[in-house]
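Thread title: Can someone regenerate the structure for this chain?

I was given the following input by a collaborator and told the matching structure tokens would be attached. They weren't. Posting the sequence so someone can regenerate them.
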Amino acid sequence: MGKAERFSEEELLLREVVADFPDDADARVRLAALVAGDRPAEAGRLLRAAAELAVDDPLILTRCVSHMFDLEELEDALRYAVRARESIVGDATDFVYFPQLLHLYGRLVDRHGWDTEAEEALTLAFELERLSGSSWNFGGDLLD
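Best answer:
Regenerated them for you:
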């Protein structure tokens, strides 16, 4: 089976999941990631819907922010990055993807010219990654 056929089959399956489970934010994020290359506007709509469904889930929100950043939906990405940070319960450093969220946040505020805030976020992100031995493989980690 070719790559195009496999993606078509995956897309159909994900669309069924979204239809059968309309409150499943994860399915929307996965479908958005799948269609982003060919249909970025649809991917953006799916990501916004997923983020609204997962208002208190920092993992889903961080995934949405990552994809929105790639789609250059920067205003929404920044809004949901802030929401993701606010939704972390307890010590933020216990959230395994906190360095990646900080990295994204830093890049987003840098685009707004908020240099000091960007520098602080990026410095902390790199320090947390160094201390934890993690690396920037957010998408790969989440799709496995």
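The two ends are 21 Å apart (CA to CA).
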